[in-house]
């Protein structure tokens, strides 16, 4: 079993899509082993996305992620990292395949509804950035 880190982003929380996204996760075989609602500060968002700090979109991205409540998740499944990225679809919803979360819910490349770790190394960092061991119940 593998764990990945996911975020239901402000654009999706604002549109009351938490339940629909969790339903898609669970019906696709993920177990929600940790979950909390949070309002990120810009500083917390900057720390989370530090790998992108040189990118031109960094300021917009971190401002957006601090613009409203999010839901933070640890999802467990076989091959959870790839499986969640497949379910999310391409970063830009214009490129996302039919049946993916971003095809169905994302508004644009920034307001793209969900985040998921892109590697085992980043999943470990991202999970520990937001959750303590006692908050993860496997
Ligand atoms: P996410 O998977 O959370 O990881 C980094 C985020 O940066 C990405 O989703 C996008 O929402 C956001 N982003 C904004 N603009 C761009 C861009 N031009 N290219 C890639 N990612 C972008």
Descriptive overview:
The chain has 138 residues and is an alpha+beta fold. Helix content is 40%, strand content 19%. It has helices spanning 10-14, 18-27, 42-48, 58-65, 80-88, 101-105, 120-130, and strands spanning 2-8, 31-38, 70-77, 114-116. Strands 2-3-1-4 form a 4-stranded antiparallel β-sheet, with helices on both faces. The protein is globular and about 35 Å long. The mean pLDDT is 98. Residues 52, 57, 61, 91, 109-110, 112, 115 line the site of adenosine-3',5'-cyclic-monophosphate (CMP).
Task: Jot down its keywords.
globular, four-stranded antiparallel β-sheet, 138 residues, single chain, alpha+beta, 7 helices, 40% helix, binds adenosine-3',5'-cyclic-monophosphate
In short:
The protein is of the alpha+beta class and 138 residues long. The chain is 40% helix and 19% strand.
What topology emerges from the helices and strands here?
Elements: E1 2-8, H1 10-14, H2 18-27, E2 31-38, H3 42-48, H4 58-65, E3 70-77, H5 80-88, H6 101-105, E4 114-116, H7 120-130
Antiparallel strand pairs: 1-3, 1-4, 2-3
Helix pairs in contact: 3-4
Bound molecules: adenosine-3',5'-cyclic-monophosphate.
Name the hetero compounds present.
adenosine-3',5'-cyclic-monophosphate
Q: Radius of gyration over alpha carbons?
A: 14 Å
Principal-axis shape equals globular
Nearest-integer average pLDDT: 98
Question: Could you describe the largest sheet, including whether it forms a barrel?
Answer: 4 strands, antiparallel
DSSP E strands, number = 4
Percentage of residues in strands: 15-25%
Unreliable residue runs: none
The percentage helix is 25-40%
Order of helices and strands: EHHEHHEHHEH
Strand order of the largest sheet: 2-3-1-4
Structural class: alpha+beta
Distance between the termini: 10 Å
Number of helices: 7
